[in-house]
Amino acid sequence: MDDDRNRNVNIVILGSTGSIGSSTLNVIAENSGKFSLNLLTANSNDERLLDQCKNFCPKYAYMADQAASKRLRQKILKENLTTEVLTEEKDLHEIIASDDTELVVAAMVGVAGLDTVFTSIVNGKRLLLANKESYVVAGEYLNSLADKHNATIFPLDSEHSAIHQCLAGIKNKADVSKILLTGSGGPFLHTNPDLLKNITAKEATSHPIWKMGKKISVDSSTLINKGLELIEARWLFDIEDIEIVIHPEGIIHSMVELNDNSVIAQLSIPDMKIPIAYGLGYPFRIPSGSKRLDLAEQGPLNFFRPDFKKFPCLNLAKEAMECGGNAPAAINAANEEAVAAFLDNRIGYLDIYKIIASVMDKIEISVVKSIQDIYETDNSSREYAIQKIKAL
Ligand code: NDP
Ligand code: MG
After folding, report:
1. Are strands 103-106 and 126-129 parallel, antiparallel or unpaired?
2. Which helix (H) or strand (E) holds 280?
3. Would you state the pLDDT for residue 251?
4. What is the Cα–Cα distance from 308 to 227, expressed in whole angstroms?
5. In 123-265, alpha helices (H)
6. What's the CA gap between 386 and 6, in Å, rounded?
7. Atom of ligand 1 nearest to the CA of 112
8. What's residue 318's pLDDT?
9. What does the pLDDT look like over 140-183, one tens digit per residue?
10. CA 391 from chain center: how many Å?
11. Ligand (nearest to CA of 136)
């Protein structure tokens, strides 16, 4: 067993330059000798990826943006680094699929991550999933592929990591009566609803507890993130009764209620390095480099029910989950377009809801039989959302 604990694991980090990707590298730095890096990827931040290549010496690097990829290649040559920059998308998939890759951390943002998540699963990898959008749109189908190809989908999202930890000691799943999915409530938990229309991108991306990428920060402020997490939890744990609990301090990361009304919770300070270390080290516990939780210092913990009227995006996500089929793909596409437009100052804060609601009214619900079905819904929902954004 100790050999297994000390065994070196060869990993790929997709989206290594982002918030989750960088935290993953911090955890890896805490555990020197335990992990080797086969591949790091990013979209366009060649400066940060270059720094990561200097510090972590991955065997390969890949950038989706061709101009950025060219810049990275030149800098790597100039610095005499050993990392090989892949230029072709097919090579990216080949490295993910190769026997050398054991574990894939999916830390890119948006459904743009679906193709590499798909490659990881059909090649039987252990997938640590932060990129919730890819799983929300295709969870049921990806689960069936994971079963077929012997892949594991392991949650990195703090709430789902907490639920995984709460369930770890429960021998019979039938003993679980409910999941209690917690959320901080975002930056506008106590904001007067009349003031929401004037919210700026800067305000919406200033989360009170978590420091995250821009897209998920806006999602957290509208609470659609909690809705996406509801769908994510449904696919991950196959438990239907899920209650959302607002917990502004972000110390309890989620809970599981059992048939005898006992409730099991997982606690820590809000720091993504903890769920990342849990995923990287599983089934062992490895250092995360995070601070310890001091409950006496922390003070009171509060809990509320979510306000569905003030945060109607949460309702839309719940409806999409209940509808099933391609509905989660449609809501995700509409949200990605609406959030991008809001961050770009092309629409107002409350228009995010309007755009998503109009796409949900328009789409025809259908069964998902293939990954192509997902892409079709994604494309048509985006097109409709873009039209609506232009018309505002
Ligand atoms: P960031 O915006 O900080 O990072 C996104 C990463 O994805 C960057 O490395 C970016 O590269 C890369 N990327 C963006 N677009 C593409 C593309 N088209 N192709 C390849 N790579 C791309 O996001 P976060 O780290 O905050 O979030 C990542 C995912 O994790 C999201 O799905 C989010 O919902 C989820 N998550 C995040 C949490 C957090 O605390 N941040 C918590 C729980 C879940 P570049 O830097 O070059 O743009
Ligand atoms: Mg979360």
Report:
1. parallel
2. helix 273-281
3. 98
4. 11
5. 132-149, 158-167, 201-204, 214-222, 224-237
6. 50
7. 18
8. 97
9. 999 999 999 999 999 999 999 999 999 998 999 999 999 999 99
10. 31
11. 1
Q: Tokens 């821009």 label which residue?
A: 214
In 3D, which of 338, 166, 288 has the Cα closest to residue 237?
166
Q: Which residues sit opposite 35 in a β-bridge? A: 9
The count of C-alpha atoms lying within 13 angstroms of the C-alpha of 16, restricted to the half-sphere facing its C-beta, is 29
Spacing of C-alpha 307 from chain mean position: 23
Q: Can you tell me which residue has the tokens 């939780």?
A: 293
Residue 115: both structure tokens together: 């193709």
- Tens-digit pLDDT profile for residues 352-369: 999 999 999 999 999 999
**Rounded (10°) angle between helices 158-167 and 273-281:** 50
Contact residues of ligand 1, CB 6 A cut-off: 15-21, 41-45, 64, 107-109, 112, 130-133, 157, 210, 212-213, 216, 272
Angle made by CA atoms 132, 133, 136, in degrees to the nearest 5: 80
User: How large is the angle between the packed helices 327-343 and 351-362, nearest 10 degrees?
Assistant: 150
Task: Using most ligand atoms within 8 A of CB, pick from 20, 89, 181, 226 the residue to mutate for ligand 1.
Answer: 20
Per-residue pLDDT tens digits for 367-387: 999 999 999 999 999 999 999
Give pLDDT, residue 8.
95
**φ, ψ (nearest 5 deg) of residue 283:** -90, 10
Stretches where the chain sits below pLDDT 50 are none
| Helical residues (DSSP H) of 170-223, grouped into ranges | 201-204, 214-222
Q: Which of 370, 294, 302 is nearest to 140 (CA)?
A: 370
CB 385 within 8 A of CB 334: yes
**Which residue reads 């006992």 in tokens?**
262
C-alpha of residue 159 to centroid of ligand 1, in Å: 18
Cα distance between residue 103 and residue 38, in whole Å: 10
> Is residue 49 within 8 Å of 72, Cβ to Cβ?
yes
CA nearest 248: which of 333, 329, 181, 185? Answer: 185
DSSP structure class, residue 38? E
What pLDDT, on the 0 to 100 scale, is given for residue 280?
98
